[in-house]
Please model this.
Amino acid sequence: GQNIDQPTEMTATEGAIVQINCTYQTSGFNGLFWYQQHAGEAPTFLSYNVLDGLEEKGRFSSFLSRSKGYSYLLLKELQMKDSASYLCAVMDSNYQLIWGAGTKLIIKP
Amino acid sequence: SQTIHQWPATLVQPVGSPLSLECTVEGTSNPNLYWYRQAAGRGLQLLFYSVGIGQISSEVPQNLSASRPQDRQFILSSKKLLLSDSGFYLCAWSRREGDTGELFFGEGSRLTVL
Model:
């Protein structure tokens, strides 16, 4: 079966750095997405990786290793507004998105 | 620019009552359209997707149905709601071709079945 694993919850301090990991086992691979979802709201797109390596976008970076079936989302200079759930999703060989359950990130002052 | 709207935002329905959630997309044509359900602590579950008018693919057998009467309109329905239908429903669209497949989500509809 297809599976996406990410931690259920993480806690970090304002101003610090946090890394959210995602491992996946899917039938084929056509890219990996990270979305941010604030409580009660819809997910919004953060990043997309299809090749190995690091993609940087401001305070957020996303890394992919296809051989290891692994990705992480790195958030720097954490702000209180970064408190949200972060969803990892992989597009399989049929171009369908397989979603992880999300990681709830709690930022403390 | 493209926008997506879905409504109603919140609804409370008794078991056995019907359901209709509507979603419309503006500013693009021929989008792929999706209905997802999100239960607490679980990943997004794809319910239906559509690549064109009248073309609906169902991912999970259930008492829900979807219709696409117009290119940019997607409707989720049920004739008789079950308690297990409670959840956060999300409509989304993606470009048909030439893109990563990124999804753009509507605001969401929170359904509580009592």
